[in-house]
Amino acid sequence: MSTALSQSPGAGAPRKARSRTGLIWRIVRRRTAAIGLGFVVLMIVLAVFAPWTAPYDPLAQDYTAIRQPPGWTHPFGTDALGRDILSRIIWGARASLLAGTLSVMIAMLIGVPIGLAAGYLGGWTDRIVSRFVDAILAIPFLILAIVLAAALGPSLQNAMIAIGVSAAPLFVRLTRGQVLGAKAEDYVEAARAVGNSHPRIALRHILPNILPALIVQATLTLAAAIVFEASLSFLGLGQTPPNPSWGSMLNDAQRSLSRAPWIAVWPGMAIFLTVLSFNLLGDGLRDALDPRRGST
Amino acid sequence: MMPRAAVLPPPDFLPEPDMAEPLIEVQNLAVDFLSAEGPLRAVDDVSLSVERGRTLGIVGESGSGKSVTSLALMGLLPRRSARVSGSVRLDGRELLDLPETALRDLRGDVISMIFQEPMTSLNPAYRVGDQIAEAVERHRGGNAAAAWTRAVEMLRRVGVPSPELRARDYPHRLSGGMRQRVMIAMALACDPDLLIADEPTTALDVTIQAQILHLMGELQREAGTGIILVSHDLSVIAETCDEVAVMYAGQVVERAPVAAIFEAPEHPYTLGLLGALPARRARAGGARQRLPVIPGTVPQLHEMPRGCRFQGRCPFRIARCAEPPPMEPVGPGRESRCWRTPLEALAA
């Protein structure tokens, strides 16, 4: 009997693939995704341990060392107020990653339940939700986030809420589509045939099966959210000065762009590399979690 | 009220169900699907009954309403788009009047179902033991450990080797035959009175098919389960069933004990089905002749003829076939929906 089992088609290859280590292995095996993952982990470590990893106090002003180019004492140089740019980048990573993560969590907390309900219940619920989402998605994302952030008042917390609410329709639409597909699966009917209730089927049987798609979308949205946090901070609607954020650092830098370009280059690079890393990681995850590559 | 003369139901004032009363009694079941062009009747005037420990086979081509009938019995048709009428009495209880919550309590506990596709009927996100345990916890309560123990026990009963280990496997690690055993374990975990098996072996190899059918029969003898076996495969029906209902275009056209129907079919459609069995023709001594087929196709739901639904393809058609024939007794325990039965008279 055990031979019959091991010889069944497709039973061998995906055996490891299901385990958690298998998933990480599949990401690491793809070089670009591994680089993305590595950089993301590095940024997270730097940001989490910012009090120890940053060489200077990010708010400490030193009028004897204003707009110093990168050198031995200040590896990334100093800004117009003599603050150490490396330290501000590291502390700014906190704001960016926190804003990215929390706003995606807000977006998912709003979007996934609504999408799940719309996709599962169908009918009028679906029609109303879908039209509403279409209408919101017709508004440019940044404009919507700016309007919300301006209405809530400038603060990092409000920027996160604004980005989260603006991104929620993306998750509504994605979740709805995935649920529509999963709902027609035989195992859903089988789950009903053993007497499961609708909420239980939606949460326990459908949700885990659409999770891979949501994780990929979350990673890619995180990258976008970091850009939007920087945009809002650049416009003065996010992180409040003097606290560092990559977006507000860019804003400060533009006044002395010709005299001290490094003040702008470092936060720009930080945004660029972090967003790129999240995108590479997201693409890698998409490939690694793709059910057509043999995990089912 | 009762068209069947053989078995009279006990009067309503008797609370105890009579032993002679069938486990499930379906009368004049009809299913209408609501569509933009008005309701489409997918199942019409279906009457069936199954006794404890017995197996009823429902046979017919694709689109004959077999699966819709079984889903209707489970109450699994979407309430928004399907209207079910008639009567389905399980142990004297009218199922069609029950609210969804009460039906949910019955499903998986008193009535269970096995589906056609074992490859896709198990949730890929959960270990198979969890899926069986879920059904047990749902209906039997108790803690998770007890439900898990029951799941392992059920896997052993359905012949899954080293069930303790297999219970921890995800479905993709099991072969089709093993998955169907898991589905059977899941369906039987709460000792249901009635098991509806919708083409349970169609997706499996012939050897595995025989194992699964044998297993179902064995479990039935142990627990006295009534089984409704839906199949398009007459050989499967012949091997496993006590009684057969032949469905055509949403109606039961003939109902008879299994031996009788293979001996002497009383409906032209059944005759055609039997004629299309390759093995039967070979045994009859026909050297390489063309496989006989019933000419034509099943009429579409929206263009169903007013009279007999088989008239367009029937070699015995007469003028009277333009009127709808009723289901009429044609012998002991058998009925046929044809103006021209008994067919033996025609051959003479």
Task: Summarize the model shown.
The complex is a heterodimer of chains A (296) and B (348). Chain A has 296 residues and is mostly helical.
Q: Could you characterize the architecture of this molecule?
A:
The complex is a heterodimer of chains A (296) and B (348). With 296 residues, chain A is mainly α. Chain A has one domain: MetI-like (MetI-like fold, Orthogonal Bundle). Chain A has 13 helices and no strands. In chain A, helix 8 (141-152) crosses helix 9. In chain B, the strands form 2 sheets. An 8-stranded mixed β-sheet of chain B has the order 6-7-8-3-9-10-12-11, sandwiched between helices. In chain B, strands 2-1-4-5 form a 4-stranded antiparallel β-sheet. In chain B, helix 3 (128-140) packs across helix 4 (144-157), helix 4 crosses helix 6 (176-188) and helix 6 (176-188) runs parallel beside helix 7 (206-223). Chain B has 348 residues and is an alpha/beta fold. Chain B starts with 23 loop residues before the first strand and ends with a helix.
Features:
heterodimer; A: 296 residues; mainly alpha; MetI-like fold; 13 helices; 0% strand; elongated; disordered N terminus; B: 348 residues; alpha/beta; eight-stranded mixed beta sheet; four-stranded antiparallel beta sheet; 12 strands; 31% helix
Low-confidence stretches of chain B: 1-6, 13-18
**Percent range for helical residues of chain A?**
over 70%
Multimer state:
heterodimer
Major sheet of chain A, described briefly?
Answer: none
Number of strand segments of chain B: 12
How many helices of chain A in DSSP terms?
13
Shape of chain A: elongated
Distance between the termini of chain B: 36 Å
Low-confidence runs of at least 5 consecutive residues of chain A: 1-18
Structural class of chain B: alpha/beta
Reported by name, the CATH topology of chain A is MetI-like fold
